[in-house]
Design brief:
- The structure holds 2 protein chains of 2 kinds.
- Chain A is of the alpha/beta class.
- Chain A has 18 helices and 8 strands.
- Chain A folds into 2 domains: about 280 residues, Spore Coat Polysaccharide Biosynthesis Protein SpsA, Chain A (Alpha-Beta Complex), CATH 3.90.550.10; about 120 residues, no CATH class.
- The longest helix of chain A has 24 residues.
- The radius of gyration of chain A is 22 Å and the shape is globular.
- By secondary structure, chain B is α/β, with parallel strands linked by helices.
- Among the domains of chain B are: about 55 residues, Oligo-1,6-glucosidase, domain 2, CATH 3.90.400.10; about 80 residues, Immunoglobulin-like (Sandwich).
- Chain B is built from 16 helices and 21 strands.
- In chain B, the strands form 5 sheets. An 8-stranded parallel beta barrel of chain B has the order 1-2-3-7-8-9-10-14.
- Chain B starts with 16 loop residues before the first strand and ends with a strand.
- Chains A and B meet through helix 1 of A and helix 10, helix 11 and strand 18 of B.
């Protein structure tokens, strides 16, 4: 079957003109007109002021914006304030704006960026979030410098979180990745990162790009890939992202993240099954200590919905979970008290993960039935955290991580057994 | 092939200049110092090179504390170079071969050994006292920059004889003349007249921005300075024809522009800022520095001309660049700190190009095709090397290498007597790099340079044409057209050491047939689509565009 090239002819022609570069900044966009110009200017000031001798290019890979984002990027220019920060550029500043080809989604945009990086032999590839926290030239520089100095090959942003913020991360993704991959990666999810050209080329060789899971959480897969493949991984302090409003697509987000997690586990099972302990990752930058307040949730309503949904899917859960485990889940979710035992939660997660190895049951299906279980967990956590101090909540989050770690052998055994 | 007639008053716009120092060119009397008799004996060589005009560095009597730019007698020849009669003989022979000659005119200062100064300092009442700029304190003209940073700490020097300070923008042994004094201006005119009457074709005027001082200013480029220069120019025009005044003003092009006046000040001025940018663009493999300075260069009167060069007798000056650019140039071209002097690099072209023939050719091609009249520095046509361990800027002033014989054929003297040692290393030494061996080799740099000059002189478009830069997406390629009347040349340069493909938007030239100027090859007709060219490392092409 003919594979669609990640590099449309228009982009290829421009890359031929650009030639070899030292730093490539990728800017995947989709309707980011409100914020993208500042990002573009910050990148160019960074190039001119902090890396005047390096060969650079910025590539915008656009997913079909209808708000004029690509045009704004093409026409963005230095302001007088920018000129104060920089001297006259030594080198030509390249800026390429192209739509990406292929399935809609961030993963296609990233694949285009990585392919461009390989073709231009970029030593550093940076991917910025065009809608993220205020991107300054200094922050772009911080993403580039450690990799130019070969101190690290993958740099994942981290930020101070309010203990009640990012429940999906704190209750599932972070502790799972930490326990299985053996690294204390604060933010396994996140649109921004920087990496070596070598890592980008390696990723292109993988077959993740056409997987459904990659559409939504390619950023997590990249982080776990970097760890599993032995690339030096580090973290860099960034301002906290703006907390999103109503999570109208929470279920979808949870399902997508779970699917991505499973894909990662499958891709890296030879690594995580052997990984032991937890390694602290080196951090760059300074913690801005600007964690925004946690959003408020109607966790009672969430719990009720979860309780209802769990009741509905009990027959499906029966097919994938051991009887005793299921019984404990039913008991917990039937109780009037809104609680969730850490150990039960972890065992549930591991059981469902192992179930993905079993027979014809699709990952999408399993991820779907996981959602209500997560929602119950999330509601219970929020209810509990609402009455505890921040310090206590932080301690409990750390305890959860240790529980994931302690029970890891369960997953290893079941995973291996299911083969 | 069209040859510009020598009677053309604007001959300098088509000329290829050749800069040389008499003392380094050829020694006839065995004292180890080049002289005019020796230079005369080399006129055949210079004629064969097809250059039009020789620019001689100072040959006046001098204590030689600044290689002759410290003049102690403006109307004579230093004995080590010969006599005034030797000079006249040389001049006549040069003219017979169609070669013009311009000489140095150091307006700004004299040697402190010049009789004018020895008289001026003898007492405050001496009639020549006011020929120089004196002060009882060193407070005047505060803040004016020091030019020779490596050696001077102040623009004032204390004279113990007359117990006063005198002003000097260059070395302390070079007191500045006072151009507010009409007597000075009159005397300088007499000096010019002296040489013009002998038949010289003009002057390269040294250090022009600094003639006049005023409190509270930078003491550079003042209106009063321009007034002095215009006065001298008007006197030249009133009494002679076909002469050229070439200004040395190391400034941004917009600051040099006033030195052309309305065509009533200097005929020519060096374009200093373009020079380091040629080197920068090559190293960066990026046309940006050159395009930026080309676009920044203002238009000049039709009778005027820029003088462009790659190297000269001074350091490769990095005054007219930003600090980022200067640091880059030093890091890339002068890793050896010994190669750095003042704000520049004291290296010749060939070593700067690391002996890479392709890069030397590319740079020479740029020199011959960018707007302006090119000035070739002696020895660069054979790829001479340098010696950064010689003092001051002598690294680039070593004797011309004529042959592999004793003393490189420069002098019959004992080698120890040469005024500067020869370059004798294994790569650039005279045994390997010399005129004689290169004349025998059809593919030598010397013969290639001759051919380059020949092609350049085959058209007036390079000397007199406008320039329009083409900006393909591939920044490693510098492309531009030069147009004069109905004639258009297309120049394409690959600044990279790797093969490049470039798409040129030449749709405005659609219908033209490019004919490569060195070999006459015909290239496909230009159409509305991008004109795709494949170029080898450091390749360049000159095309004559013909609509047939």
């Amino acid at each position: 079957m003919e594979q669609l090239s990640a590099l449309p002819d228009a982009l290829l022609r421009q890359l031929i003109a650009v030639g070899q570069v030292d730093v490539l900044v990728g800017l995947p966009t989709l309707n980011n007109a409100a914020t993208v110009v500042d990002v573009v200017r910050a990148v160019h000031v960074c190039f001119t002021r902090d890396f005047p001798r390096l060969r650079t290019v910025m590539i915008n890979s656009d997913g079909g914006s209808t708000d004029g984002t690509p045009e704004l990027i093409r026409s963005a220019s230095f302001t007088e304030a920018d000129m104060v920060l920089t001297s006259h550029p030594l080198r030509t500043l390249h800026r390429i704006v192209v739509p990406y080809h292929g399935l809609p989604g961030k993963h296609t945009a990233l694949r285009t960026v990585f392919a461009a990086g390989e073709l231009t032999q970029a030593k550093v590839v940076v991917v910025l979030d065009p809608s993220g926290p205020a991107t300054t030239p200094g922050r772009v520089t911080e993403m580039i410098t450690p990799i130019t100095r070969s101190e690290v090959e993958f740099l994942a942003p981290c930020h101070s979180r309010h203990p009640r913020d990012g429940v999906l991360v704190t209750q599932l993704v972070r502790p799972l990745v930490r326990a299985l991959y053996g690294v204390a990666l604060d933010e396994p999810l996140g649109p921004e990162f920087s990496c070596s050209g070598r890592f980008a080329s390696r990723c292109l060789e993988r077959d993740i790009w056409d997987h459904e899971a990659a559409r939504f959480a390619i950023d997590m897969w990249l982080r776990t890939e970097a760890v599993a493949e032995g690339f030096a991984v580090g973290q860099i302090w960034r301002p906290a992202p703006t907390v999103a409003g109503a999570r109208t697509r929470l279920r979808e987000a949870v399902q997508q993240v779970v699917m991505a997690l499973i894909e990662s586990l499958r891709a890296h099972d030879s690594f995580w099954r052997k990984a032991n302990g937890v390694v602290e990752l080196r951090r760059w930058g300074t913690d801005p200590k600007d964690s925004p307040d946690a959003p408020t949730w109607d966790y009672q309503a969430l719990a009720e919905q979860a309780r209802h949904d769990i009741g509905e899917i009990r027959p499906l859960l029966k097919e994938v979970l051991e009887a005793t485990l299921l019984a404990r889940i039913v008991e917990e979710t039937s109780s009037l008290e809104l609680r969730s035992d850490d150990e039960l939660w972890v065992r549930t997660v591991y059981a469902l993960a192992a179930a993905t190895r079993r027979g014809p049951t699709s990952i999408e299906h399993l991820a779907g039935i996981f959602v209500p279980l997560y929602l119950w967990r999330a509601a219970a956590f929020m209810a509990h955290a609402a009455i505890e101090t921040d310090a206590t909540v932080r301690e409990e989050l750390e305890s959860l991580c240790q529980t994931f770690q302690r029970l890891k052998p369960l997953l290893v055994d079941h995973w291996s057994a299911e083969v | 092939m069209s040859i510009v007639k020598s009677a053309d008053p604007l001959w300098y716009k088509d000329a290829v200049f050749y800069q040389l120092h008499v003392k380094s060119f050829a020694d006839s009397d065995g004292d180890g110092i080049g002289d005019f008799v020796g230079l005369t004996s080399k006129l055949d060589y210079l004629e064969s090179l097809a250059v039009n005009c020789l620019w001689l560095q100072p040959m006046y009597p001098s204590p030689f504390r600044d290689d002759g730019y410290d003049i102690s007698d403006y109307t004579d020849i230093h004995p080590c170079y010969g006599t005034l009669q030797d000079f006249q003989t040389f001049l006549n022979h040069a003219h017979q071969r169609g070669l013009r000659v311009i000489i140095e005119l150091v307006l700004n200062h004299t040697s402190d050994q010049h009789p004018w100064f020895t008289e001026a300092r003898s007492s405050r009442e001496n009639p020549r006292r006011d020929w120089y700029v004196w002060s009882d304190s060193d407070d005047r003209y505060r803040g004016v920059r020091i030019i020779f940073l490596d050696t001077e700490r102040s623009n004032w020097a204390w004279d113990p004889v007359s117990r006063a300070y005198y002003w000097h923008r260059f070395f302390s042994h070079q007191p500045d003349l006072n151009y507010d004094n009409p007597a000075v201006r009159e005397e300088i005119w007499k000096v010019m007249k002296f040489w013009l009457d002998l038949g010289v074709d003009g002057f390269r005027v040294d250090a022009v921005p600094y003639l006049v001082e005023r409190e509270g200013t930078s003491c550079e480029n003042l209106p009063e300075t321009h007034a002095v220069l215009k006065e001298l120019r008007s006197r030249v025009d009133a009494n002679y024809s076909g002469k050229v005044l070439l200004a040395e003003a190391n400034m941004w092009p917009e600051d040099v522009r006033p030195y052309f006046g309305s065509g009533d000040e200097f005929h020519m001025s060096f374009h200093f800022p373009v020079m380091p940018r040629m080197f920068m663009a090559l190293r960066l493999e990026d046309r940006k520095p050159l395009v930026d300075i080309i676009e920044r260069t203002p238009s000049i009167p039709d009778s005027c001309q820029w003088g462009i060069f790659l190297r000269n007798h001074d350091e490769l000056t990095l005054e007219m660049v930003t600090e980022v650019e200067r640091e880059y140039m030093w890091d890339e071209y002068a890793q050896d700190p010994q190669a750095r002097i003042n704000l520049g690099i004291r290296r010749r072209l060939a070593p700067l190009m690391e002996g890479d023939r392709r890069r030397i050719e590319l740079m020479s091609g740029l020199l011959m095709s960018l707007p302006g009249s090119p000035i070739l520095y002696y020895g660069d046509e054979i790829g001479m090397g340098d010696n950064v361990y010689l003092g001051d800027r002598n690294s680039v002033r070593t004797p011309m290498q004529w042959s592999g014989d004793v003393n490189a054929g420069f002098s019959p003297a004992d080698p120890e007597r040469l005024w500067l040692p020869l370059i004798s290393d294994a790569v650039y030494g005279y045994q390997a790099v010399n005129v004689q061996s290169q004349q025998r080799n059809p593919t030598s740099l010397l013969n290639w340079t001759r051919r380059l000059i020949e092609v350049r002189r085959s058209t007036s478009v390079f000397g007199r044409g406008s320039i329009e830069v083409v900006k393909p997406a591939n920044h490693r390629v510098l492309a531009f057209t030069r147009t004069l009347g109905r004639e258009t040349a297309l120049v394409v340069n690959n600044l990279a050491g790797t093969a490049q493909v470039v798409e040129l938007d030449l749709s405005h030239l659609a219908g033209a047939i490019p004919i490569e100027m060195f070999g006459g090859s015909i290239f496909p007709r230009i159409g509305g689509e991008p004109y795709i060219m494949m170029m080898g490392p450091y390749d360049f092409y000159w095309f004559r565009l013909r609509w047939l």
